[in-house]
Specification:
This protein is mainly alpha-helical. It is built from 3 helices and 2 strands. A two-stranded antiparallel sheet has the order 1-2. Helix 1 packs antiparallel against helix 3 (40-63).
Length: 64
């Protein structure tokens, strides 16, 4: 895969991460409630973080 395309995808993923961890989105998940006994905000933050790491790994793996 072309290095420019990889850089572009990683840049887009970075911007998506900035949106995912920005105030308005985090505020939407800051509600009273639980998922499997854990606060909704914690589940969202760690789930989104895990998804970003998996997407970066997938993008970089394709490069090899």
């Amino acid at each position: 895969m072309d290095d420019e395309r990889v850089r572009g995808r990683l840049a887009a993923l970075f911007l998506g991460g900035c949106v995912a961890f920005g105030y308005p989105v985090l505020a939407a998940f800051n509600v009273t409630g639980t998922v499997f006994g854990l606060p909704v905000l914690y589940v969202y933050v760690f789930g989104a973080w895990m998804a970003l790491i998996a997407l970066v790994a997938a993008i970089v793996r394709r490069r090899d």
